[in-house]
Specification:
With about 425 residues, the chain is an alpha+beta fold. It has 14 helices and ten strands. A hairpin with a 2-residue loop joins strand 1 and strand 2. Helix 4 packs across helix 5. The protein is elongated. One of its GO terms (biological process) is respiratory electron transport chain.
Length: about 425
């Protein structure tokens, strides 16, 4: 068995499978993970802020950029993670597979890290298509798994730090190549594998076992020692092309210059009612009747003062026009022109405290975001509107008619549609 493991490593050796390449791909993968984690935590606290938290409202496209970057970095993890697994695949055939208890813990932590990474990026990708073929709540699990992955990443870096330090720069690689050119003629890893094979033969003799094991060893012996079909430059080129393809063919759902290349993104810019995509329809939300009822009114409440406004009364107030994006957690976004009443003007009509947060309530009867909270930094921002029009037309039912919220730098799930009540909350 040990000889079979050694021979398998020998057969799998290629110039692209070496510690330096593992470090190079690992650096890129680590950056992608950190970017995903940072932007993901930011998105999480926007949706579930702690009482003391305040968020920037400028630039107005901040969430569009941060969440778009989150999705792009997550998609880029696919080719990078597969490339890293390709490089270290021969390590699965190390013999003995476990050298000590610490070595067992190391291999177990790596297995857990790889498994958790694959789960995280897979469920994240499926979320962009709003497909949830699992029994657990996506948002909570995705957030918790992000912290687990960061912990495992730190542990992995700590374990592999001597190798990472040694192969961080190309200098050591150049020195190794010079040594190989002076004395070694076989591909990287082949000399060690051959020495290990000879040691195994010395320990157990050269007699080949019979049966299936013997035939397997015969096949391994006939396998070329170190195929060189995958060069390091070719491997990096393939990884780069794969990464550019998966990112370039999906990033157009967020970044307008790449819109023409958006082949696989679940949303296409300009497609939808009034030229804006729709995530949650009025039919799905169950608000078709209540949103079109003649008696609809928007209620504002603060400090015991409560007032209601019909749509006609809201339209009679001074109107403000702003250009803001709808930027959703799934990664897509669409810039649009909104027109309506400034929220701070409505807040003043009920004498709301300037430092008060607001609770927004939708006509929806169910759903995680039928009630949302808005901090004073958004309430008092001049770009925050109770929107009545979209792109020069009366707000479509699918976009929140008769009135919806729109504010700078907020996730789309917090831009509450089908508004029914706005209530000030004082600390």
């Amino acid at each position: 068995m040990r000889r079979m493991m050694y021979e398998a490593q020998r057969a799998l050796a290629t110039p692209s499978r070496n510690p330096r390449m593992a470090v190079v791909i690992g650096r890129l993968l680590g950056v992608a993970f950190i970017v995903c984690f940072g932007t993901g935590v930011y998105s999480h606290f926007l949706q579930e802020p702690l009482p003391w938290m305040r968020f920037p409202t400028r630039p107005a496209l901040l969430y569009q950029f941060s969440q778009g970057t989150h999705i792009v970095a997550g998609i880029a993890c696919f080719p990078l993670l597969l490339a890293k697994l390709y490089i270290v695949f021969p390590e699965l055939f190390a013999s003995p597979p476990v050298k000590s208890f610490l070595h067992l813990l190391e291999r177990a932590s790596i297995a857990l890290f790889v498994g958790a990474s694959l789960v995280q990026i897979t469920i994240g990708l499926l979320n962009t298509y709003q497909w949830y073929p699992w029994p657990f709540p996506f948002r909570e699990v995705h957030y918790a798994l992000g912290w687990v992955l960061v912990g495992l990443l730190v542990l992995h870096i700590g374990i592999k730090l001597p190798i990472i330090t040694r192969f961080w720069s190309a200098r050591h690689e150049a020195e190794r190549e010079a040594t190989d050119a002076a004395g070694a003629t076989e591909a990287p890893g082949a000399a060690d594998a051959e020495a290990a094979r000879l040691e195994a033969v010395r320990l157990w003799g050269s007699r080949r076992p019979s049966g299936v094991t013997g035939r397997l060893l015969a096949w391994i012996d006939a396998t070329p020692a170190a195929p060189t079909s995958v060069s390091r430059r070719g491997f990096l080129t393939a990884v780069g092309i794969a990464g550019a393809a998966v990112v370039g063919l999906t990033a157009g759902q967020t970044f307008a210059p790449l819109d023409a290349l958006n082949v696989f993104g679940p949303r296409k810019k300009g497609v939808g009612q009034q030229g804006v995509p729709v995530n949650r329809t009025a039919q799905r939300a169950g608000v078709t009747a209540s949103a079109t009822a003649a008696g609809w009114a928007l209620t504002l409440a603060a400090g015991g003062v409560e007032r209601s406004f019909s749509r006609a009364e809201l339209e009679a107030m001074p109107q403000t026009e702003v250009e803001l994006p709808i930027a959703c957690v799934e990664g897509w976004s669409q810039l649009a022109v909104w027109r309506g009443v400034r929220l701070r003007d409505l807040a003043d009509l009920v004498d709301a405290d300037p430092d008060a947060s607001f609770r927004l309530t939708s006509l929806e009867q169910r759903g995680s975001f039928r009630r949302t909270q808005m901090g004073p930094e958004y309430v008092r921002d001049p770009l925050t509107l109770v929107a009545l029009e979209l792109n020069g037309e009366t707000l479509d039912l699918q976009h929140g008619y008769p009135a919806r919220m729109i504010a700078p730098g907020r996730p789309g799930v917090l831009q509450t549609k089908w508004l029914s009540r706005i209530e000030a909350i004082t600390a």
